[in-house]
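Supplementary Text 2. Reproducibility record for the structural model of the 463-residue chain.

All settings were left at their defaults, and a single model was retained for analysis rather than an ensemble. We include the record here because the model underlies the residue-level annotations in Supplementary Table 4.
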Amino acid sequence: MGVPVSATSKKLFGTDGVRGVVNKWLTPEQVTRLALAIGSFFKEGSKLLVGRDARAGNSFIVNSVISALLSTGVKVYYAGLAPTPALQYYVKHHDFDGGVIVTASHNPPEYSGIKVIMDDGIEAPRDVESEIEAIYWELKFRRPSWSTLGGDIRRVDDVNEFYIKGILDLLDIERIRRQKMKVVVDPGNNVGSLTTPKLLRALNMKVTVVNGDLSHIPDRPPEPVPENLQETASIVKALKADLGIAHDGDADRAIFIDDGGRVIPGDRSAILLCKHIVKNRGETEPSRVVTAVSSSTLVEDLLRKYGIEVIWTRVGSIDISRTMTSIGAIAGFEENGGFMYPRHQYVRDGAMALGLMLEFLSTERRRLSELYDEMPKRHIIKTKIPIKNREEALKAIEVLKVQYRSKRIIDVDGIKVIDKSYWFLVRPSGTEPVLRIFVESDTEELAKNIYNEVVSTIKDLLR
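Retained model, structure tokens:
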């Protein structure tokens, strides 16, 4: 979720862009000021592509963004309603200097937000975010002469079609078309409904769309987690569909539902996709994947047999994307359903992940439930503990480092402790004052024991 910025806070950008409740923090005044800072960061005359999802308030937010950008002397092109990865793909391939997408991704419906895109189609790195924040707080906005501000807004109408074509160009479409699979799509009443059903029909799939109408009040919460997908999962099972797919608000995430109606965690589906990329697509170099520390250690266990190294990063798609561009990887992903296939683009890409999954099932000629059943089953506990400040979080992490010093520790984002039969992660949230805790183990009993041990240590410290 987004962090409402107070007068004492200098941080605007969270884990993934700037977010806030519409007309509480995300007001026309705040949006205008932020967009002035964004426009002032880019050089005068830069070409920026702007798009939005269907959330409440986005019609006024996007107009505030465009007005402010124009006033700083940049050229604005408007894509209208589009998934985030569609806009990113267009920026990358059409000589834009950057872009702005108005979305709050998986946040509750009352939120919206702003993401800044660079010329490579990837979200702005942390140092650029800091520069934009400095311009925002110091009010150092560029104010070009009136005589230079005669440019109109240019409309771009082929963003979604160009994106779909880019995915189709990378797939073995004839192999997929022969299978004539039945697919249930749940775009959560947002912009995924503009692209994913079209992609599936182009691949000769039998498509059922649920929650397909664009609406600022969605029929399910935007985040595609199991508790929000029970109705969709029951439809997949009732229709005897081959699989289901659910998106978040801006369709950069893909959560799969197998033919038995089970919602598959994003890191598990990512393992299947990586297996397909290496085994069936023959893409083995560079022999590594990049993922956040919140992903399961099953990633290492199951990809090792294919000679694939796992690089762990901080939580946040920006960190994964930028790590991939610097060191190279066959894929990147998050446990929340974000999957990045660099042959298409270095960003979370829900429809591309779907295309790869359909190609995998078509190549293997097996059901998704069979492939998922082959994975070891683990017991997972996720929770969060309120904290007063970041200092409390850092103190808890240091105590856990000492307590578990004999284990393998990854500390790029909080602390991840790895043992042969379990792992856990404790990290401060980037969006709210809590410690996030993940525990996963071979047995339910061990998961509970480790969870109780870790939580007890933290609560004793915070008393």
